[in-house]
Design brief:
With 459 residues, the chain is an alpha+beta fold. It folds into 2 domains: 2-157, no CATH class; 182-458, no CATH class. Helix content is 56%, strand content 8%. The protein is built from 18 helices and 7 strands. The protein has helices at residues 11-20, 57-62, 69-82, 86-93, 98-117, 144-157, 174-188, 197-219, 229-240, 251-261, 275-285, 288-293, 303-323, 331-354, 360-381, 386-392, 399-408, 434-458; strands at 2-5, 25-31, 34-41, 44-50, 123-127, 227-228, 298-299. The strands form 2 sheets. The chain has a 5-stranded antiparallel beta sheet, covered by helices on one side. Helix 7 (174-188) crosses helix 15. It is globular.
């Protein structure tokens, strides 16, 4: 394996070296926005792909009118749920001709390369042993030098990198992990609870295992998350009974449906903003059978954890929705946001229960930091609407974040739930008056108390 940064080895020099050496393998280039991948077969580029929403094959094809947009969306969603090659389904179910697909792939490779050329800095990895496959005969056969020249021309015309701040890269090795571990120990281990060198070494290895588990899973995920079996069974019961599917109380299912709804990037269609709109989109896709039968999207029930998350989401959704009108937010948007925001916390809790951290302060800090990083990364990868990404990774105060913050204050074990506004709410006066915040807080507390009584009564 060869790795480095492009400020040390120019991208053009790297491509020339790969071409002249006649090598095969995968070149992966990473920055905060995602990964771009170029596959090589004997020194020639044979495939290109990207996790950056604007550079994905489906988004690219949507601008080429090879397949109607809604059919393209359905095929892409089906490929994600089935873990099938998107190109396979395009040809088998979308009626796309290999020649047209190959031409689009070549143009996409040129565009991806042009975006790499104008990037400020990227990390790269070349894996010579990575298997390079001929995908249904649509693989490319392009000289890197030709690709580079065409990309240079395109980069002069390119609109440039957008102002999206990107998301966290969940580092799990080398210097990046050591920096993360130092932050966790600095914030999580106080002077009242010092640990010796041997204990610190044990905690270091344990945190590395936890972060590594999450990182490897994230690397293989298009944004979809495993759902507790109980949620899948509730969903299957509704589908088999011919009922209209209600996503309230099914946060993981709602997350996965949001991923599918946002899978095809469009500047004109930013994804659903309410739970009702998401249910409508999910009904139009009608891929419930694929979702309920997918084993890789199902995880075993976890008794107390599932009950804790289920109860918390129910109370949080209602409390945030009650606060919403006082802060100029659609209550349905607040409801959906509470469902989505709880999911990364559940994922981290699931891993932490499998690999328990014996130090209480470090465990709390780990939960907060990793929940934020996982949520930010997954939401960015899935191209969620900005309004939701801003609460999953709160770098500035927003009205929706304030609604969720006030709802969070009504929850049991408040420190377990993710922070949705910077500085733990101290900056909320930047977006709302004292009186509006007071009314919103009162409404949230009242509804949360009622919801808690209803949940207890329901058993």
């Amino acid at each position: 394996m060869i790795q480095g940064t492009l400020d040390r080895l120019h991208f053009g020099d790297l491509l020339q070296w790969l071409q002249m050496g006649g090598v095969s393998g995968r070149l992966t280039l990473r920055d905060a926005r995602g990964e771009r991948r170029l596959d090589f077969n004997k020194g020639r580029v044979c495939y290109a792909s990207s996790t950056v929403p604007k550079e994905r094959l489906a988004t690219w094809l949507a601008t080429r009118s090879l397949v109607p947009v809604e059919e393209l969306r359905r095929i892409l969603a089906a490929s994600m749920l089935r873990r099938a090659f998107f190109t396979d389904l395009l040809i088998a179910e979308g009626g796309v001709k290999k020649e047209g697909l190959r031409a689009s792939l070549t143009e996409l490779a040129e565009t991806i390369t042009s975006r790499i050329l104008i990037s400020h800095q990227m990390e790269f990895t070349f894996e010579p042993d990575h298997p390079v496959l001929d995908i249904l005969g649509v693989s490319l056969d392009v000289e890197p030098s030709h690709l580079l020249l065409e990309a240079a021309r395109r980069s002069d015309e390119d609109e440039g990198i957008d102002d999206d701040e990107g998301s966290y890269d969940l580092a799990f090795s080398g210097e990046a992990f050591e920096s993360l571990f130092w932050k966790l120990t600095r914030d999580g281990i106080t002077g009242d609870d010092l640990v010796d060198g041997e204990r610190m070494s044990e905690l270091h290895d344990l945190v590395r295992d936890i972060v590594s588990t999450l990182s490897h899973w994230l690397a293989a995920s298009p944004g979809l998350v495993p759902s507790p079996s109980g949620q899948i069974e509730d969903l299957a019961s509704s589908v088999l009974g011919g009922e209209a599917v209600c996503l309230f109380g099914l946060p993981h299912v709602a997350w996965n449906q949001m991923v599918l709804a946002c899978s095809l990037h469009s500047s004109n269609r930013g994804g659903p903003l309410t739970l009702g709109a998401l249910e409508k989109d999910a009904g139009a896709l009608d891929l419930w059978e694929e979702m309920t039968s997918s084993e890789y999207l199902r995880r075993p029930d976890a008794g107390r954890l599932d009950d804790f998350i289920g109860r918390g989401v129910a109370i949080w959704s209602r409390a945030a929705a009650a606060a919403a009108p006082h802060l100029g937010v659609d209550p349905e948007t607040a409801t959906l946001a509470a469902h989505l925001t709880a999911v990364p916390t559940d994922l981290v809790l699931w891993v932490v229960t499998t690999l328990p951290v014996p130090h209480n302060g470090l465990r709390k800090t780990l939960l907060v930091e990793l929940s934020r990083r996982v949520g930010s990364r997954l939401a960015h990868l899935a191209d969620f609407p900005r309004v939701f990404r801003e609460v999953l990774d709160p770098r500035k105060p927003t009205s929706l974040g304030a609604c969720l913050h006030l709802g969070r204050q009504c929850l049991p074990s408040i420190s377990t739930w993710p922070v949705t506004i910077p500085d733990d709410g101290e900056c909320m006066l930047e977006i709302a008056s004292v009186s509006a915040l007071a009314l919103a807080a009162d409404a949230a507390r009242e509804v949360a108390a009622e919801a808690d009584i209803e949940i207890v009564a329901a058993g």
